[in-house]
Amino acid sequence: MSDSAPAPGTPVSGPVPFAKGHGTENDFVIVPDPDGVLEIPPQLVRALCDRRAGIGADGLLRVVRTTRIPEGLGLDGEWFMDYRNGDGSIAEMCGNGIRVFARYLVEAGLAKPGTMRISTRAGTKLVVVPDGQSDITVDMGPAVIGSEAVVQVGGRSFAGISVSMGNPHLVCGTVLPVEDLDLTSPPDFDPAAFPTGVNVEIVNVLAGDARTTPGVPSPDGYDLRVRMRVYERGSGETRSCGTGACAVGAVALRSAGKTTGRVAVDVPGGRVAITVTTATTLLEGPAVLVAGGQLSPEWLAAAAARPVIAQAPSEPEGPRAVLGEVVEPTPPATHTPSHAAPSDRAPSRPAPSHPAPPESAPPQPAPAQPASPQTAPHQTAPPRPAPPQPAPAHPAPPEAAPSPSTPSPSAPSRAAGSEGTPSPPAVSSRPSAPEAAPPGSEEATRADARASDGAFVADAIVEWVTEEPVQGWDTPPRPHAEADPAARGWDPARGRPQHAPPRSSKGPARSVAPAGPVPSVEPVSPAAPVRHTSPAPPVRPVGSRRRGEATGSWGTISPSADITGAWHTIPTPEPTAPRPTATPGAERTGSWPTVDPGVVTGEPVVTPGLGALLKAVTAPVVEAIAEESADEQPPAGTHAFPRPAAPGRPPHTPPPGAPGEPAAVGPRA
Ligand SMILES: N[C@@H](CCC[C@H](N)C(=O)O)C(=O)O
């Protein structure tokens, strides 16, 4: 923080800028905070992501210099992506979000196009942003493939393979057309297998798998084409998930007998390309900025004053002041993994009860622990560490691997560096590069993953059947959730969805989480203005939203924004694959075939667009480019999106109508 920086706790006197963007329609509110002076509590994240009373998004990206946050210690990207799910919970990584984040850096004049390093809770990622509006590519690190687990989605059981992309995923292949599935309710999963929750991908293989789609060619440049829908932890169903697509690409390739290749992953919001090499996973896809503007101070105050639903907080926070309000101290609450959707899509809730496995399920599927617990980024850098670390809702069985919620002693820990820290560290220059890869970093993860490469493949017995590609497939409309949990289909007495499938009468449930307390509404303290970070009480539990508040004002519309609102059309229609004959219980059989560990059936696929990146990953010149990018001043006067305030000043307050700046529409402080 510079000398002229406001003292912690000083109210921010101006409007807070924001931008809105999406990657394949996985959308985000972007809040620039280069000095790390803003705290955005979960309830404000929820309010901002509210699609009716807020700006609306699946998640939030806070743009902060890596040197200004405890999580960034040891990370060497100039910028840190502080990602939040729409329900206010923190996640380790977001593949679509980091592309949008990079686009924002460039459009806001904070970075130059080209290669840049962006730090996340899952390590520092290399990102290539071409000049113009072309797709952005991210080196996401290796997919760490774990073991089989079963999940209940829309009343059906699916077997899947757990994968860590820094955050946890369960990839479930199925013969049922994914567009027919009901993803309006949170999946029921085994909390012992996923103590911090899980993102669930349901997948059809459409082309390129000789065993299941014989004779159906993939689009040019791809080895496989798949379609997926996803239910995201903390966000509900989204129209795309970048980390999920990476997980799907890795598992789908292995199911087809390959460990490397390129996969077209079609999602409701478009298509992303996944390239799996022996060392890493590349995610390529669009990133679009839609608008920029300023949050209304009145709206912020109203958002902070709304009542909250008392529940176990999804992300225990340390003492901090907050954006929009200051709350009273509360004793630490028992942590319950957060994996529910935000309130405008599905209720936040305690860990769901896990129904009995389907009759055809293996008697005792292995707990879904990644093969190398010490290498899984979401284990080494758990998303919700807090001192003291509470026990998971259900401890893993004795034979299970150590709980992923157990932080590594060497992992970067917010417990050590954040929660008890009254203010961001006074670091004014970039830290020198560590001699060894920092724990939890991408480099460390990759090195560990290489060492355990042969242990990636899960012991799953599966069957793939093709299904007919469908043009213009769509997902059911998102349900509009009401404040009343019951009105959202939530049974507070049972602590699970009202229409959750009954547990099997033929055997006990494998793991049943405690139903949890019935949510109750309680007020929070009166709203206070936006404040800078300072020693402050813990953040209260995530709140529900209230209607009728003033919202953040809209600013400019980006010329590059895709505002058609139309369903994404797959650009190149592929030949129709033979549609399988659905058999009773088929959803249980669709999963991933066993692949011999360590079998590599193809060379890494290098396409023209990715060749440069693959070279960049290893070329020393990348470091020079990254350094240059970090050290040089961004071009002035060309940015189209709101820039953050200069160091030491409150968030940017552009003059109304200034060239290149969004017009100030909302009320001023
Ligand atoms: N949509 C993101 C993933 C966001 C985080 C996820 N919901 C989690 O909690 O792990 C992506 O594009 O990867």
From TrEMBL:
UniProt pathway: Amino-acid biosynthesis; L-lysine biosynthesis via DAP pathway; DL-2,6-diaminopimelate from LL-2,6-diaminopimelate: step 1/1
Binding residues for substrate: 26, 85, 95-96, 167, 199, 232-233, 242-243
Domain of life (superkingdom): Bacteria
InterPro entries membership: DAP_epimerase_AS, DAP_epimerase_DapF
The UniProt record lists the keyword GTP-binding: no
Major enzyme class: isomerase
Ranges of biased composition (kind: Pro residues): 349-370, 380-410, 644-659
Keyword check for Cytoplasm: yes
Residues the record marks as active site: 94 (proton donor), 94, 241 (proton acceptor)
Extent of Low complexity compositional bias: 335-345, 426-442, 508-530, 579-600, 660-669
SUPFAM superfamilies: Diaminopimelate epimerase-like
Reaction(s) this enzyme catalyzes, per UniProt: (2S,6S)-2,6-diaminopimelate = meso-2,6-diaminopimelate
Subunit structure and binding partners: Homodimer.
HAMAP family for the chain: DAP_epimerase
The name this protein goes by in its record: Diaminopimelate epimerase
Gene source species: Cryptosporangium japonicum
Gene name as annotated: dapF
